Amino acid sequence: MKESFDLAAAASILEYKDSRIFTFEETPEWTEIFNATEGLSVTKELSEAETPPVGSEAEGYQVSISNKRFGGAIEITENDRMKAGDSTVMIDKFLERQRNDLLTDNRHKFLTEIFNLLNDAFTGTYYLAPDGAVLCTTHTYKSGATFNNSATAKLLQSSIETLEEYGGAFTDAQGKPRPLTFDTIVVKKGSANAREAKKLFGMNGMVPTAVADINIYEGAYTLIETPYITTDNKNYWFAFASREKNPLYVGISKMPSMNEPIKQNNEAIRSNVTGYYKVGINNLPIAIYGSTGAA
Description:
- The protein is of the alpha+beta class.
- It is 25% helix and 29% strand.
- It has one domain: phage-related protein like fold (Alpha-Beta Complex).
- It contains 5 helices and 16 strands.
- A 7-stranded mixed beta sheet has the order 7-16-12-8-11-10-9, covered by helices on one side. Strands 1, 4, 13, 14 and 15 form a 5-stranded mixed beta sheet that branches.
- Helix 1 packs parallel to helix 3 (88-119).
- The chain is globular.
């Protein structure tokens, strides 16, 4: 049971490595420190004998993200064993049912935690960007320049045009052009946004690729539908520039795994499942644009 649980738990989590919404890493570090840079301005026209000037990288924010411990347990009581009598088949079925339910619950907790990065994008109750701002709002480079990656418009043709204009006019911390190509749209599965996106991008007749319970449609834009954007936030929609570094970070130090059974004082047998992972925003969210869809 331990082996099957551990393999299934790891496979279930790693499916989301291909979801295109997060940066996944498996890492043994308890606390990871991320250092951002904000470019440099040093290149100039040189005379025939002139030595090129040396530039220094403008340092951005430093952010650290630490592990959190997650877990649950299943237990088979002495009564359960007595009811089963000598039937190992009944015991096996009982344990299999509990194992499957625990696996489902463990996966749900993991997905709820990582998708809080999107559900929390406009409130900042759980996660903030390195500059101390929520994921989608006005952000300030450490050097002082700003950019605003948020909107309130519904997902319509006009809002996609606004998104593309925003990406084409984007500049870096030094004020130099840094155009962004947004090519991925993320919406609540089954929402009005999902239906509108399929109309906008001509995906009504396409069969999606399924990653766990996420639908991924390929076209002019890649459309991703996820059930883990909550119903309360069903109007939210997000755009990702996949060529840029994704700042939504998930670092897994220990995949959820079942520990050795423990016999309790009341003769019950308890099996704990624990895992360690860290979730956070590890860089300014240049690669992400989000809208509440309220207007």
